[in-house]
Batch of 4 targets.
Target 1
Amino acid sequence: MSTFNGKRILLGVTGGIAAYKVAYLVRQLVKAGADVKVMMTEAATHFVTPVTFSALSKHPVYTDLWATESPEDSNISVSHVRLAHWADIVVIAPATANTIAKLTHGIADNILTVVTLATPKPILLVPAMDVDMYINEATQRNLATLKMRGYYVEEPPSGELASGIHGQGRLPEVESIVEKISDILDKSIQDFKNRTIVVTAGPTYEAIDPVRFIGNRSSGKMGFAIATAAMQRGAKVILISGPTSLETPRNVKRIDVESAQEMLTAVRNNVQKAHALIMSAAVADFMPAQVAKDKLKKSSASSSLQLTLNPTPDILAEIGKKKKKLVTVGFALETKDELANAREKLQKKNLDVIVLNSFNKKNLVFGSDMNTVTFIDRYGEVVEYPKLPKIDVANKILDKIKTLL
C-alpha cells in the first residue's frame, strides 16, 4: 500500500448502479495514504449523494462544470484545468457505456468528461453495465479505440448483474481496482520528463503507379505501443508513422508519411533536439526505379510486368553516422541466422541497441498484440525475453534507453 502515500487520485463516478461500491474504493484509497478527490456526473448523483464521497474523501465533490471557486493556483484559474493537472491518475468507476462513448468521440458536456479529456495523466476506465450493453459492438469498438489511445481498461468480471442476468459487466472487486491503480502508478513514473523521444512506426509504401505500391505487412502496433509508453512516462513524443489505421496515442505528436524518403525527411527534421530515436518502422528495402504516371494495364492474359528496383534510403545508417548524444534503437526482423544478422546490423548502423524479432509460427509479429524479442546492445550484452504484450516490450525498451541516457 506504500504505493499510494502522497499520490493524488481523481475519481470520476458515472451513473451506474455500481456507483455505491465506489464509496468503499474511496475509503480504501484514503486509508492507504492517497489524496482522493471525486467528480460525479449528474446521473451518478441519483445513485449516491455527493455528501457520501465528500465525507469519505475529506474534499468537496465536483459535480457542476460551471461552479465558481477561488483558484488554488493563480497561473491556472479554470477549475477543470486545475483538476486535470492536479491528479497523478484519473480513475473512472463505474464507467458507463454513455461516458465511454463520450470520451471516444471527444464530447465534453460535464465536469467528468471535460477534466478527463483535458488531463495529460494516466486514465483508468472501470466499465460496469448490463452484459448486453457491454458486449454491444459499439461499446467494444469504443473501448478498443480508447485502449489504442493509451487509456487503461480494467475488464469487468462475469456474475449476477442488477438486472438479474448472469454475464460480464460487474464492477470488479475493490481490491482488484486498487491493485490495478497501484500497477499503473508504478508503470507511470515520470522518469522521461523533459526528454524528447522520436518513434517511427508502421510500414512504408513505395509507389509503382498511382494506385499500386510495394510495402509490407507491418501494422504499426509496436511503434504505437512505444509512443504510448513513452508518453505515459512523461516524455515529449514525436511519432512518425507510415500508413496505418491505428489511433494516435494521447498527448503524442503524430507525423504521417508514406515513403521511405518522406520518413527520412521527417526523422531528420525532428531528431536534432531529441534524446532518443526508436526506429520500429518496417521501412521497405526497395523502391521502383521509375513510377508510372498512369495506372499500369494488363494488355493481355499472358503479359508480364518487370520492375527495376533501387534501394530505399537507409534512415538508421544516415542518422547513426551523424549522431552525437542521441541514443538510437533499431529493430531487426530475421528468419535465419538471427543473432549474427542482428549484430551485423547493430554495428553497420552504429546503433546503441537492436531489438531482434524472430519471425516464425510461434511469433507472428505482424498485427499481433504480443511479441518475443531479444535485446543486443553495443557492449555485447544479450537479453532474451519471453512472449510479452507489446506495451510491456515498449517499457523494456524504455528501461534500456534510461540506462544509456
Target 2
Amino acid sequence: MRYILGLGNYAMGDDGIGLRVVEHIGSHDLDTGFEAVEVGNDGLLVMTYFTEETERLVIVDAVEFGGQPGEFTVFSPDDVESHKTVGRISTHEGDVLKLIGLGRELKQPVPPIRIVAIEPQGMAPDTGLSHALQDHFDEYVAAALKEIRS
C-alpha cells in the first residue's frame, strides 16, 4: 500500500498545510491507488506505517528549511540531515527525520520515503493559511500526487 501522510496542526496557521493537502486529496477523490491520511501533530504515528505492506510513503509538512514563505522542496530523508533541536520524542513535538532514523535503528521495515517540505510564513495560533501558502496550494497537491505515483 502507498500513503500520503499529512502532518501538522490546523490551529497553528501554516503548520496545518500537510493536513490541508491530504484533506483536499481525499475530498476531491484524488486518492486512487493510495491512501491520504491526516496524521496531525502526532509524528509517532508515522512509525505505524513502517511495515512490510507499505510500498511508499510521501510526507507533507511545514518545514523551515530557509526558503521563501510558500516555497517547497521534495527530498528523501537520506538526502538531508536534521538540525532541529528537540528535548525528547513525544506525540506533540518531534522530528520526522529522527523518527525515521529511530525506525531504522529498531530494524523496522522503513519503506521508500519522500518528503514534500513547505516553507511556512507563520506558525502561530491561527486557523487559516498565509497568502504565501494559499497562492501555491495546488502546486503542493500536484507535488504530493507526483511523488506517490512515481
Target 3
Amino acid sequence: MLPQALDATALSHAIQNAVVPVFLLTGIGAMLAVLANRLGRIVDFARVLEGRLPASSEKERVDTHRRLTVLSRRARLIYAAISLSVLCALLICTVIVLLFVEVFLSLKIPGLIGVLFIVAMLAFIVALICFLREVYLATVTLRIGSH
C-alpha cells in the first residue's frame, strides 16, 4: 500500500511540516481554556442573579433582568468563540493528517491543505473577534462599588 519511495527523509520532512500546526493547536487549547473559564463565570453569576429574583423589589428585578440580558449576550459570544476555536482545531488536525497522507500516498494536495489552513485561520480570527466583543460587553457593563 505504501509507495516504495517513502524513506526516512520524506517522513522526517512530513513530521517537520506537521510540527508548526501542532504548536498552533497548543495556542488554540489555551484559548479554549480561557473561553471555558469565562463561560463558567458568566453562568455562575447568572445563577446567582436568578436566585435573587424572588426576593427582589420591582426596581431590582428590572435591573437584574437587564444584567441577565447582558450576561446572556456575553454567553452567546463566548459560545460562538468556543465553537469557532474548536472548528479551527479540527481543521488544523485535518491539515496535519493530510500532510502525512500526502507523503504516505504520494498525493499532490497542497491546494486542499492551503484552503483548509486558511479556513482554520479565518475561524480563529472570528473567534478572537467574538472574544473581544464579549470582553467589551463585560467592561462597558462593569459595576464597581454602589451606583
Target 4
Amino acid sequence: MSQHIFKWTMKLFVHLLDLIVLNSWIPLYSCGAKYTHQEFGLLVVRNLIEEARKRQDFPTPRLVGRPSVAAKNVV
C-alpha cells in the first residue's frame, strides 16, 4: 500500500516541478535568455539540491533555559 502512495505522490511532485520550471522558463526565454528548457530545468534542480544541502549543515537549535511547567508533566 505505501509503495502505491509513493508512486503517485512522486509522479505528482515531478509533474508539478516540471510545470513550475516551464512557467518560470517561458518569461525568461521571452526576455532573451539563452537557456533551453532542459538546461534551465537542470539548473533549477541543482540549485534546489544545493540549498537543501546548505540547510542540513546547520545543527538543530537546542532549547536553552528552564523547562516549562507543561514539559515537567510529560513522561
